[in-house]
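User: Structure please.
Assistant: Input sequence and predicted structure:
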Amino acid sequence: MLARKWSSFLLLSILFAWVGLQPCSQAAAQGDIQVRITQVDNSQFPRVTVYVSVTNAAGEPVGVDPATIQIFENGEAVAPVDMRGGGELLGGESIPVTTMLVMDISGSMEKNDKIGAAKEAARSYVNAIRSGDQVGIISYDTHVYTVQPVTSDIPTLVTAIDGLQTGSDTAMYNALMEAEMALENVTDRKAIIVLTDGMDNQSIYNAEDVVNGIGESGLSISAIGFGDINAAGQEGLDEEGLKFLAEMSGGQYAFATDAQTLNTLYHQYGQSLQSEYAITYISPATLRDGINRQLTVSLTEVGVLAEEAYNPGGVLPEVSSSSWPLFGGILVVLLVLLVVPLAINRIVQAFSPASSGDRASKRPKGRIKMDRPPMESGKRPRVKLK
């Protein structure tokens, strides 16, 4: 039994060694400059594309010389093979952006015409998209509704927004999971902007599920709380959950108490997305080995940096051709460690006194058998012992 437990422990230890931690985004700021890693696309690994946002303290985009952006993977500087971005606002190249607007239409959105303010902010957002950008719209109350799949057709998007009507309770996390699935096959920069005015009380998912649902191509989730952060009960905002979503996915969180502030936040989020930089490099560790890679983005001009971890994946981790002999040797050792203790246990049991006693106790005991049934002649039946 002890040998069997030891073998299981060894196998589990090796399996856990392959498991990486969940990616976590961390922004850094110095003075008025803030740097964020907003998305890491490793779907074409070892080719990795990192999206970087540079803003001031007010959240407004700041232009930098792309040559001053340096990337390190596990502390090793990597040379970009492609660098784009900055957007038209900063006199740079535009990066296509696909946004999914996830909008709360629960019954509480009727209060103070919050639904009207949300519609106006969403219309303003879609009217500001550029050529090559796309927007989709998902709404939610108790249920989740795909109001408009991603499209670049602005009039179609405006019509979809105008048709939004309020319903009942709130299933925000369900809606976010639906948004992730809708963006799964979209390439380049993609983002979710979710609006909510209350606590989620109908979802089967939670914030951790949403973060874990982000695929290899990555995306960011920015959240806007629309209401009173001091309110209690269902009308209160789950700021902890909303901040968690934003921090873990490279997004932003803010709250608005009126229509003007809400409109400003949508505009600010849109400008920030349109002004990001995309830097592509080849990972120096080219195997999908399931081990986390630590990314660091540094701005040499101002001395600020941002960090994030990503995992290249690999359910069955890849190994190089030169590693196969080592891998085979390790496999043989594992098999020996598993089989030999079991064999020793069998041998010990076979020769131990307790085992002999057990075998003796299992021998068939004597039975009494009637040779034939009694006969009318009066002869007695014979008895045989076996």
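The mean pLDDT is 83.
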